[in-house]
User: Fold this.
Amino acid sequence: MPELHEHVERIYAEVARRNPGEDEFHQAVFEVLHSLSPVVSKHPEYVDSAVIRRLCEPERQIIFRVPWVDDDGNVQINRGFRVEFNSALGPFKGGLRFHPSVNLGIVKFLGFEQIFKNSLTGMPIGGGKGGSDFDPKGRSESEVMRFCQSFMTELYRHLGEYTDVPAGDIGVGTREIGYLFGQYKRITNRYESGTLTGKGLTWGGSQVRTEATGYGTVYFLNEMLRAGRQSFEGKQVVVSGSGNVAIYAIQKIHQLGGTVVACSDSGGYVRDQTGIDVELLKEVKEARRGRVSDYAILRGDEATFVEHGRVWEVPCDIAVPCATQNELDEDDALRLAKSGCRIVVEGANMPCTPKAVKVFSESGVLFAPGKAVNAGGVATSALEMQQNASRDSWTFQETEVRLAEIMSRIHERCLTTADQYDRPGDYVSGANIAGFIQVADAMLALGVI
Ligand code: NDP
Ligand code: 2IT
Assistant:
């Protein structure tokens, strides 16, 4: 890796010092700052106006108590977060994550990434993220509802279609968005559709939002293959996770002619050499809220479940991590490269560790980062906001065409920008620099705020 420019090195040291213990946030900042070294050399105006330093400090951080009563009558206390990171391009926009691992550092890393991702979509949305350390696993329907209502009872005052617009992420899907929206509507006495995205189709949601992150990931991958004069035909793919992003990535890969031979959850992975049966996977994960081990049982002889196994053991041509941050480490990367994997794209946010990314670059594995690859989810959220604002709703086909166009534009922007900064084919630099410049120029125009 080339050296950090002196200015960004100082900023990184300041971020590390002022945000102690927030390892994932440091990791995300380091990666972006690293890409920005050549930009700073060319554009002193970003140094003079402290744009990068301001970008690293959230505009507002909200932490709140979420008390609720479980089915046994016990009072439970969780912690809620919303980090409103940057609103230079539009209202804060980004998902809510409900998972026991959620803490301020995780929410800040996700919010920071979201700034550049949202900028790359070319749509008028700023960056933010939120969530809670609430664990929905094993909770009843009414416990999830009571939790969501308590969470929104505090958060509602910070939201609004012109202010901050949450959506889903890990542990938050249409069901949770429904309870959150219901409570927002009740407290405010306003049917403000544009305040949350990922809504159901009968109450203000957009076609394709459910599929958007997975589909968009595969559209981006398809652009990478096309740029290398290849296609999905005959390609074996491993996808990690089996949640919203993974399921629709698998579905689109199959539609385009590839074969997904394995997927996973936190209990292990399932290998299915003839290709994951996505309808069965949807039934198990979406309808029954089950595990991939249940999928393996129902699928019969075709499938093998490897308890606590690492899915990256399965040889493949393409790997698509779609579960969580830092789920693919240096050893996994070495194993993938050795088994013949040629392309890795991040469906999840920051799933590959920095050492894994280094292995990819040294072994000629083409790599593309989450903030470009998985931007189709938030882009379709912006399309949902557009439909809400005009009280319109578009067909599935129309919406999917727009998503495909957006992904193709993001891909193009990454490559063009990488070329401009003498890093041809480097999707990480391309995404970070292109995302940064648009936000930075808006921040310059808006003055020191
Ligand atoms: P889901 O909750 O639908 O699914 C998450 C999947 O990842 C599950 O299979 C889950 O397994 C697995 N997983 C989650 N945390 C862990 C962990 N700590 N260790 C092992 N496995 C884990 O979430 P999504 O599919 O929505 O999100 C997946 C990733 O994609 C996240 O990084 C998210 O930030 C990112 N993303 C999501 C977008 C969206 O629109 N939903 C948009 C852009 C990015 P288990 O059930 O066993 O926990
Ligand atoms: O990480 C992400 O981009 C998301 N979880 C989706 C955010 C959104 O507002 O749709």
